[in-house]
Amino acid sequence: MDGFAARIRASLQQRHEANLYRQRLTLGSAQGPLVALDGREYLNFCSNDYLGLANHPRVIEALCAGARQYGAGSGASHLVCGHSEPHQQLEIALAELTGRQRALLFSSGYAANCGALTALLKSGDHVFEDRLNHASLLDGGRFSGARFRRFAHNDPADLARKMATAGGNRLVVVDGVFSMDGDCAPLQPLAALCQRESAWLMVDDAHGIGVLGESGAGSVAAAGLDSVQVPVLMATLGKALGTAGAFVAGDGELIEYLIQEARQYIYTTAIPPAVAAATLASLALLREEGWRREHLAALIARFRQGAGELGLPLMPSTTAIQPLPVEDAARATALSERLRRRGLLIGAIRPPTVPTSRLRITLTAAHSMAQVEQLLEVLAAEWVARQ
Question: What CATH number labels 57-288?
């Protein structure tokens, strides 16, 4: 056996033995609180469709209308001939939502983070990242060639100690809402520290945009911060907004610089114009239907109350992401499988994605209070009864 084949086989075998093997689900239905899998209906608590917009009739119709007018694909990168009117309208709308001068669309959150970080940072610069940042932020920092340092999770004091020994251009990078723990970054003290140190702050708000803040503008707006305090804001469109893609928002010079320098923007085919049209419909629903955020908040509060009554050791999250720690990967996998047999889809998240295994329970505005009660009832049977 040649070296590559041997490496591949050994890696796969090791993952199986450690209960870390990843497997895909193949759904036979649209996203929603109820989904079809292998001919059976399941109550879905592992989707990031936080506002329940991925299958909304207005979003679907906007997608179809966009496809009828602009076709199924964009045909080229934004800088060749792939930038269409819906792209332009969406960038303007996203800039308005986030209170920034301009926004720039990317094909994915991974591309947006790597593109922004590798364009902004150069050799000799310093980038400081929260230890629990998303993999795309960590990779972008490493790829950039800058001096890369991680600080203790949500610990501005540790960040300050590390920044004290670094000169030159300094960029601090955090998630607004951490995707696996569900907690929020302490953005106000981080922003104040960056202001004192003449450093820039970049926030990845993939899990905050659309959900947090009075208008759904995200965690930065919820913290009362502006574009001066947070010069670089990234967020995705495929979670609360229910479509696909991502964007970076900032002042006009930053966006123009990324257009010229971000390789993940320059050398990638633009998202289909129809997807941009669908996202414009999502943004309209975000403005018109504030009840979605209110209902989601009520579901989160009820779930946490019920979990507390059951003695479930939830992590301290007030967002739609409600992680339930499990001591090892084997038990997390087994518990996820038992819940599936009882009709619930809840993913088991294991190392190396997270330092400790957990069930990642996510709530959406499309869930009903009765479905949350059903979730608590099944967890009581499958978790509490086995303690």
Answer: 3.40.640.10
